[in-house]
Write a structure and sequence with these properties.
Shape: globular
Largest sheet: 9 strands, mixed
Distance between the termini: 37 Å
Radius of gyration: 19 Å
Structural class: alpha+beta
Number of helices: 7
Helix content: 25-40%
Number of strands: 9
Strand content: 15-25%
């Protein structure tokens, strides 16, 4: 268990600078990782090691069972600044923050050692991908956590939005687009049957699938 004092009002750039990382993924910006949370808070965090391959969803269920929530990017940065050598021992992932790229793929931040270099990087959070057993996951104890920070998964409010800009409809559309792009037969059919620019038809199809998902979800909620 580690105790951290996190200044959520500090700029992302300032927190990255405080960590003195040798290399930072250029997509880790305040635009891609916005936050509306402010103020100073002391929290207790743990580095959870499962020692087996698990999907993000399985990890989040395990954390919930232990009264923990996934740490956010700013909490990861606060940890990296206070304990800079920990990432030299193992890669440390924060599943509580994510950036969704233009084609719907979600990325989460993590601290990693690359040779002698301390990196602040992003990893693709494919819902079907299983994290290797060597990863550690930074998690916040809920017993002392008085913040209103959500995580990507187990709370109802985060089902509605993956971040402050990505809606559930956008999320479903992004997943549908991944499936469409990976299906060469479907792409060929779109190109053959439509005179419009294929990318526009792919985007349209993705949202049509997403609309159907929302419609079916509403019947079950």
């Amino acid at each position: 268990m580690y105790q951290l004092t996190v200044d959520y009002s500090q700029s992302l750039e300032g927190m990255i600078k405080a960590g003195k990382y040798d290399w930072v993924n250029s997509n880790i910006t305040r635009d891609n990782f916005p936050t509306n949370h402010h103020g100073m808070q002391t929290i207790e965090v743990e580095l959870i090691h499962f020692g087996k391959e698990l999907t993000t969803q399985e990890i989040e269920v395990e954390l919930e069972n232990q009264s923990l929530r996934p740490a956010t990017l700013k909490e990861l940065l606060a940890f990296g600044a206070k304990y800079p050598d920990k990432q030299r021992e193992y890669s440390i992932v924060a599943l509580g923050s994510g950036w969704v790229d233009p084609i719907g793929r979600r990325y989460v931040p993590y601290l990693v050692q690359d040779g002698d270099v301390r990196d602040l990087n992003l990893s693709w959070d494919d819902p079907y991908f299983k994290w290797e057993g060597s990863y550690r996951f930074l998690a916040v104890s809920k017993t002392l956590d008085t913040s209103t920070l959500g995580s990507h998964s187990t709370e109802d409010k985060t089902l509605e939005t993956l971040d402050s800009r990505i809606s559930l409809l956008d999320h479903f559309a992004g997943l549908a687009m991944q499936a469409i792009i990976g299906n060469s037969g479907y792409i060929k059919a779109i190109v053959k049957n439509n005179k419009n620019f294929p990318d526009k038809e792919i985007a349209k199809s993705a949202y049509e699938f997403a609309d159907l998902m929302i419609e079916e979800r509403n019947k079950r909620v």
